[in-house]
Amino acid sequence: xxxxxxxxxxxxxxxxxxxxxxxxxxxxxxxxxxxxxxxxxxxxxxxxxxxxxxxxxxxxxxxxxxxxxxxxxxxxxxxxxxxxxxxxxxxxxxxxxxxxxxxxxxxxxxxxxxxxxxxxxxxxxxxxxxxxxxxxxxxxxxxxxxxxxxxxxxxxxxxxxxxxxxxxxxxxxxxxxxxxxxxxxxxxxx
Length: 190
What we know:
Elements: E1 4-6, E2 16-20, E3 23-26, H1 27-40, E4 46-49, H2 54-66, E5 70-73, H3 79-88, E6 93-96, E7 107-109, E8 125-127, E9 131-136, E10 146-150, H4 151-164, H5 181-186
Helix pairs in contact: 1-2
InterPro entries: ANL_N_sf
Organism: Cupriavidus pinatubonensis
Protein name: AMP-dependent synthetase/ligase domain-containing protein
């Protein structure tokens, strides 16, 4: 029997899952954005998500997961890092939200002008064993090392963190992250 985890754990379609400026984004809107992007992503099993907008980054990560693509998450976006990603996964394309993106990979522009959802979409269940991402070390001591992350491992890790922080009590919480991904990937609790 394959175990699955829901893409979102918010209780209803009107639950707020993110904020864009001063505007709340509901679960319904987030799911519509994820499904719309997933339907448009080009061929290729690997995605380098270079979206600078954090909401678009999250939508891109979930859209890739939804359609079975693996996100490549390096600690930097230098030309050398991009070259190494292309060597690691020759079919990789760059998902970006910058009209002036010059990443030396096939590029797919995330045009976020999607219509409002007409009806709430069901929250998809994702197999726990689905490969979600390769998270790369910085490579400061040599070649960056890829660490495979499955959806199940990410969900279990997020749930354990919520438990440790006292956020698993059934109330609605807002968590604000302020560290760049390169710092977060190397951070370890003391």
